[in-house]
Amino acid sequence: MPIVNRIAAFHDDMVAWRRDLHAHPETAFEEVRTADFVAAKLEGWGIEVHRGLAQTGVVGLLRGRGESQRAIGLRADMDALHIQELNDFGHRSQVEGKMHACGHDGHTTMLLGAARYLAETRNFDGTVALIFQPAEENEGGGRVMVEEGLFEQFPVEQVFGLHNMPGRAVGEIAMRQGPAMAAFDIFETSITGHGAHAAMPHRGIDPVLVAAHIVTALQSIASRLIDPLHPVVVTVTQVHAGDTWNVIPEQAVLRGTARSFSREVRDRVEAEIARIASTVAEAFGAKAETRYERRYPAVVNTRDATALAAQVAAEVVGGDNVETDAPPLMGSEDFAYMLEAKPGCYIWLGNGTEGGPGGCMVHNPHYDFNDEAAVVGASYWARLVETALPLAG
Ligand SMILES: [Zn+2]
Ligand SMILES: [Zn+2]
């Protein structure tokens, strides 16, 4: 069976919702209009609505036919980005400096499309939690929902997510079992030397020289300390020191980010950055202190949920259009917090090939979600529910 015909029949409605959301982008924890929009639609279809988790989060609870106590969760993100849109089509952002440049308008629309179909048909036995989360970009709205009791309030067996993927054709779906997107951490190293006249360096301890050596030495984490078969990135993105030409400053500060896929590598990277910084500094008579902060964990897809997602994807778009061992991405995603709490799977949905409609990469001021992908994504959600929670007989 390809896409769900009933969903294709209201494609025009989904396009209208999506463009309305696109024109009215809202950023982290301020998705008030968007949450109202989602809640009104869900209530209109007779779906029980719960609001308030992570401030603007919305959860729709829909029971199928039958007596099953089983439940699964489907998650969409609702937030936009701080980007000035450079598109000039009719549904471009009406909000200065904000834009749906990651396609979360499309994600919200597709989960709404599935909700409408599932509410009409109820061809499943059990409960589906339709999770609309705020603040996926940077602020970890998914983490906040989990911390505020998302899965205690809505105890699902598995949770599923998806993201549109420019560069893949509409009608293609990709996924991988195991680590699929990297953990994302940040660090800051403060180096304290001894200020001096720049013409008398022997009277001081130069933190700029120490910082330069630390930046270089940190490269050995990826190239010499971690198994080359385990992906890792350590990038210094900021170097701050000094105010003028003829003074050796007292202090220097380095900031950067680390990406990894496994707990072991993550632990090691955290320890090595601090160790290298402090021992290199010591070699020069300076001191270095490192603050390391763990942000998003890695997205790790579990075996059974990934097999289910692959089966449903193949049914919707055809087996030839499903890539089940797509390469992992070094980018990060706060759906990882939900996957830490529950088994599940996160897939990538083709948004259009490069150079064509939907081919522009996310976070670019020219990006736009491809409305042609909406029927595919909503059909995947709908069939996932019907397959995971089948009616008896
Ligand atoms: Zn994004
Ligand atoms: Zn995104």
What's this, in brief?
It contains eleven helices and 16 strands.
If you had to describe this structure to a student in words, what would you say it looks like?
35% of the residues lie in helices and 24% in strands. By secondary structure, the chain is of the alpha/beta class. It contains eleven helices and 16 strands. The radius of gyration is 24 Å and the shape is elongated. It folds into two domains: 5-181 and 298-388, Zn peptidases (Aminopeptidase, 3-Layer(aba) Sandwich); 183-294, Alpha-Beta Plaits (2-Layer Sandwich), CATH 3.30.70. The strands form four sheets. Strands 1-2-4-3-5-16-6-15 form an eight-stranded mixed sheet, with helices on both faces. A four-stranded antiparallel sheet has the order 10-12-8-13, with helices on one face. It has helices at residues 5-9, 11-23, 32-44, 104-121, 141-147, 150-153, 207-225, 263-283, 303-317, 335-341, 374-388; strands at 48-51, 58-63, 71-77, 127-133, 158-166, 173-174, 178-181, 183-192, 196-197, 232-241, 247-248, 251-260, 287-294, 299-301, 322-323, 344-352.
